[in-house]
Amino acid sequence: MRCIIIDDEVNAIKALRWEIENYLPELTIVSTFNSAIDALEYLKSHPAPDLVFLDIEMPEMNGFDFINNVPDREFEIVFTTAYSEFALEAIKKEAVDYLLKPIDSEDLRKAVEKLKKRLAPIQKQEYITENLKAIKGYNSNESDKVKISFDGKINFMNPEEIVYLMSDGNYSKLYLQDGKEILLTFKLKEMQQELPEKYFFRVHKSYIINVQKISSFYKNENFIVLNEKINIPLARSRKAEFIRKYL
Fold first, then answer.
1. Dist CA 86 CA 95 (whole Å)
2. Where does the Response regulatory domain lie (predicted)?
3. Which of 17, 54, 180, 230 is the most buried (most CB within 10 A)?
């Protein structure tokens, strides 16, 4: 799993790097930052890591502000801090764990185990999908099928059956053309990985739409209408990409 470390204390980064490199071979440190602002710039032009070790008290931008500046976060967070009073806020940010400095080796190992459990459904789905591809030998038409797990099985759906998906905490809701609504036991970012980009676009941290269902786009008001009646917000951070791809 790929990770980055954000901490304004050089010695704290060195200590955490040593722990990871010596005791957690499943983690690969791809970069470290003394500034949350520099880390934000990095994420704009590099693939998102699986995990970010994030200090809270930092000059210019603290850890919570860093998260607020990544509205469509695609990575997990482990907070690393010398202050215990931030624990409740860390829980609200859906962090994997909250580690107090100096970081204990056993606490760090437990945090990574929690991360593995959180990512396990995604990895299992990817494994099943890849094996089904090998067995069935998909042709170009079949590859357009959307593979979604619900009702205890993997369902192969045509893209036109799906109108949009909406985040519901640790779950997602699937809205179909026939009016049905299905609760999925996957986060929206997990579902995004399963959907073909030529049909689906994440317009907001809480919504993925089927672009074939777009009836109109209100550019100044930043919202999209699906099937002539469903209004979906378009995040400002996604607007330029949406226009470049589909308009």
1. 12
2. 2-116
3. 54
Same-domain pairing of 197 and 236: yes
* 133 lies in some domain: no
On whether residue 86 sits in a domain, the answer given is yes
Structure tokens at 28: 């690969």
* Number of domains present in the structure of the chain: 2
Q: What is the pLDDT along the chain (247 residues), one digit of tens a residue?
A: 899 999 999 999 999 999 999 999 999 999 999 999 999 999 988 888 999 999 999 999 999 999 999 877 889 999 998 877 777 676 667 788 999 999 999 999 999 998 888 776 544 444 444 544 444 444 434 457 888 999 888 899 999 999 999 999 889 999 999 999 999 999 999 999 889 888 999 999 999 999 999 999 998 889 999 999 999 999 988 998 998 888 7
